[in-house]
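Follow-up to my post from last week.
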Amino acid sequence: MSEPRSTNSETEGAVRLDPVIDAMIESMIVIDENGVMERVNKATQKMFGYMPDELLGKNISMLMVGSDRSRHDDYMHRYKQTGVRRIIGIGRDVLALRKDGSNFPANIAVGEVNGPEGRRFVGLVRDLTDQRELEEQALRRREEMVNVSRLSTMGEMAAAMAHELNQPLTAIANYGAACIRLLEHDPIGNQEDIREALQEITDQAHRAGEVIRRTRSFTRSTDSEREETTLSKVAAQIRSLAELDTKANNIRLNWDIPEELLPILVDPIQIQQVILNLIRNAVDAMRDTAPDERIIDVSAKLTGPHELRLEVRDRGIGVDESAAPEIFNAFYTTKSTGMGMGLAICRTIILAHGGTLRFRKNDKRPGDTGSTFFFTIPTKVSN
Amino acid sequence: MSKSSGKVFIVDDDEAVRNSLRLLFKTVNIEAVTFESGDTFLHDYDADWQGCIVLDIRMPGTSGLEVQKILAERGNTLPIIFITGHGDVPMAVEAMQVGAFDFVQKPFRDQELVDRVSQALSLNQEEHENAAHARQVLDCYNDLTPREKEVMHCVVKGQANKVIAMDLDVSQRTVEIHRARVMEKMKARSLADLVRMAMLLEN
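User reply:
Got it. Predicted complex:
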């Protein structure tokens, strides 16, 4: 505020506060009991784009958006009547309106001053644009990380995928070669065999396409989007990909995720990423497990009134006790290949969904081996 | 294509691969029998079978390499051709080192596999005939009298009748009679033939 309008400080003989107030980065606005602006500092001018003259004597609701704007007078009126505080002494994040019509996120803190001239309210407005941008950047970076990690998981699975594609391709090549021979020998007499072989070729081409399709939907890079779904549905979509890995390693994959579990609100691809990662870790842990012991159990159940839990249980080498505190840290790995990002990213994803990711040693029953990794996920609150 | 009476025994967990192979072999007049796992194959396996085995190296349950090992313990003589996938070469090498006939990498050219299988079938046929021949020779040999056996041993060492007669202390004429009987009983067409039989018997 360029021209001191108030004379209070001078008459009271106290320190002149105006230069201090004008030096503040935050906008300071003083209003009377009716919401009319009496004082604004320099930051207000800069933040909202108005000259002080354009503000003083006007209602503060002109700096607000939406229902805050239309109902501000009511709020003040109600406070006068009931003394119930909606904002005073509490502070709130709101959208503020500039002169040019644009919005910006702001945090406001309001204090009440009772002086000889009656009740006044002092509002401090902080522009949150930069902070929000940083938060959004961090979020974007996290999502990029999650996407990259998913792609790298798929890269590691390339060998298993090549195997899975080779099956239909081999069958197609065999059927095709057989057709040529049948045609060369006796096209009429062999008609039925040829027709059947062509049908098989068609089916196997679709089968190969399906392998690609499954992979594509998983590696698609999109912004995180949550949707209401069920754990059994989400998990089912990753099962065939997980089976690529278990099959290639001679591991039996048991699947027990009841369909009737309560709905959840999640980013399906991210949850699939966690499940796939846990299964792949289980596969790695069982490299030296005897062939008839090579079993992974994936199961889910309700573990609280609003909580589901999914478990991946292996019979592998287990987690070394000295490593236990570190395994969820980024760049921690015991594998010769791999970045050590898998579990760290899984934990990030689960935390972002309001759950937890942990593990335990399998030792409840004699003969138990390996570990169980499990995560919780809140069920969708119905309203 | 093949004149062998042997069959190709296909062990592969993938139904489409199995069926396509069966049809492929049908077009070249090789009878194929398929098995969906190493375990079902081992369950049905009979040491009297003739032909060859086409074995997928990577299968759930008992793997191809394990099947090979168990078959070896059971004295299997059927040649084994492994089907391997991308990146399974180290396993294939291991299989070759313990006596696999050959391996082909998926996806393979039909002719490549058909050729290997035909070779394997011929090999098995030949071995089978040799074994039958060896049994026949042994039967004939067992029909010889002790004296005839003595004469045969001397003859295949290249000794002249005169020398044999002196060694056995009989007349040269007697040696000639024994020798003729040996040739007749052993169904030998020539001395060279008899020498081959003697070598076979030594094994």
